[in-house]
Amino acid sequence: MEQTLPFEKPLIELQAKIAELKSVTESADIDFTEEIKHLETKFETLQKEIYSNLEPWDRVQIARHTMRPTSLDYIHAIFDDFIELHGDRNYGDDEALIGGIASIDGQAVTVIGHQRGKATKENIRRNFGMPHPEGYRKALRLMKQAEKFNRPIICFVDTKGAYPGKAAEERGQSEAIARNLVEMAGLTVPVLSVVIGEGGSGGALGISVANRIYMLENSTFSVISPEGAASILWKDASLAKDAAEAMRITAPNLKEMAVIDEIIPEVLGGAHKNPEEQAEFVAVSIRQGLQDFKDFSKEQLVNQRYDKFRAIGSFEQ
């Protein structure tokens, strides 16, 4: 059964009524054609009204939707000849953070992304999209390889955060993320990052130090989850909705504050409603980004990235 979100309840009820009238029309000698047309028009109007007036907490729920397209979904839809590469050449392979070589319009690129599952078994295999340090070290290995062969880097961000377990800390979780931040800042090839779902904490930032950061319309990007923030600020995780509002973690908020560079529109109802069409929207932005940075020199790429992050935030006397 497809996951339904609380704010979608009026739409679900209306859909059920339409289905009921269609069933009666087909099985009985009663014509409800006009009533069905009226309800379908009402459904379309209500759908547009709901999705054009989403609150931050609504967007959080869409970003967490179990059927929302993952990094691999976008990679297979947008790129050609994807070859996944494994391991950090130190400890092992982390399936929560995947990467490899691909091409787009004949241009070789390196693609990296958090990978979560859509069902319980796959989520366990992917550690719910929360990488261990070997995941970030694998990502860095692929980035340095891309730099060596002058390949642009495209990253897909979709994680609640880096895995906070004891084993991850023992293997240097914080150091692995910090090293990625330092190394990414100095990469001499174009780096594009796309937040496709949840962008949580340092786990997201570990592949987000980019020349251009995109966010899908209903994705989130924050230092902590709304539940975590509510627990710290008000000692009550049930106030997550209020925290989501106060934290300004949605794409429109972050674009306004210049934390991100561009919002990628989503299909009506969220990316999970039509993954193929959504991939086309993402592909347009990626192609434009590659074109924009095509003629930048190595020094210009590093300076642009430096200036971009230095400009975030404001100071008051």
What's the story with the biggest beta sheet? 8 strands, mixed
Rg, please? Answer: 21 Å
Secondary-structure element string: HHHHEEEHHEHHEHEEHHHEHH
How far the N terminus sits from the C terminus, by CA atoms, comes to 55 Å
Keywords, separated by commas or semicolons:
317 residues, alpha/beta, eight-stranded mixed beta sheet, 8 strands
Report on this structure.
The protein has 317 residues and is α/β, with parallel strands linked by helices. It has helices at 9-27, 33-51, 56-63, 71-78, 120-125, 133-148, 166-170, 173-185, 201-205, 226-234, 240-247, 251-256, 275-292, 298-310; strands at 80-84, 97-104, 107-114, 153-159, 191-200, 212-216, 220-222, 262-264. Strands 1, 2, 3, 4, 5, 6, 7 and 8 form an eight-stranded mixed beta sheet that branches. α9 links the parallel β5 (191-200) and β6. Its EC number is 2.1.3.15. InterPro entries: Acetyl_CoA_COase_a_su (IPR001095), ClpP/crotonase-like_dom_sf (IPR029045), COA_CT_C (IPR011763). Residues 38-292 form the CoA carboxyltransferase C-terminal domain.
